[in-house]
Amino acid sequence: MASVDGSDELAVALDRLRDELRQLEQVVVAFSGGADSAFLAHVAREVLGRDRVQVVTAISPSLASSERDECESLAVEWDLEWIGIETSELENLDYQRNDADRCFHCKMALMDVIDPIAADHGAVAVLGVNLDDLDDHRPGQRAASERGAQFPLVDSGFTKQMVREASRKLGLRTWDKPAAACLSSRVPYGTAVTVSVLSRVERAEAALHELGFRELRVRHYDETARIEVPIDAIDGLIARRAEVVAAVSACGYRYVTLDLEGLRSGNLNAALER
Known about the structure:
The protein has helices at 8-24, 35-48, 65-77, 93-96, 102-121, 139-146, 152-156, 160-169, 195-210, 234-239, 241-249; strands at 27-30, 53-59, 81-86, 124-126, 217-221, 224-228, 255-258. The protein has 274 residues and is α/β, with parallel strands linked by helices. The strands form two sheets. The protein has a four-stranded parallel beta sheet, with helices on both faces. Strands 5-6-7 form a three-stranded mixed beta sheet, with helices on one face. Strand 1, helix 2 and strand 2 form a beta-alpha-beta unit. Helix 1 (8-24) crosses helix 2 (35-48) and helix 9 (195-210) runs antiparallel to helix 11.
């Protein structure tokens, strides 16, 4: 078993997580390939073994193709039993209309595909939710909880920073992976979520990644793309203004703008507080 040196708090949390997983005995991990779900899947594989851990990635237009490929790559690298399965949230009119409960309907679609797999294996569905996630507007967590999913990272006392630090000490390359919420999170509430909108966002973000910008969001406002990068990356983006404008315009945006407040994960939720 890999060991983690460091703070007592981190060591205690990791021991508690391992105990939680042993008690669950068999799990199906909702696997987005992000730092949280990757850490949870890796520890579950370590504790329970390959045959008692299945990792499931929901495949839909709201998942960037690069993220789907990363999930499969990690599964091969870590010897995980991985399943990529299509979900149907975009067929749901309640999801398409993109109100404050969009994530609720998305998570319900995820549980629709995970529940049968868990039932077939006599397993418990687990999600990589951490303590910090509880502070934001996350109706998807409510949906998952209603369907019987469990949150071992929360139960074990992991914050996002603790997940990253434990992942680093365990040698996981996902330890510093930027957060990459689903593409629908780039669309302001009240603007319909469609395949064409998600495709445009995905292509614009991919184009900026190709220019070397690692952490970013392209928020979709019809003909306008609002780019968010961390504060310390703003000068670099402005210095390459012509390339950035050309890359994003080629994806179908007429106006390319920069948010001077920088990248704020989940900042579109602020509209719900007005």
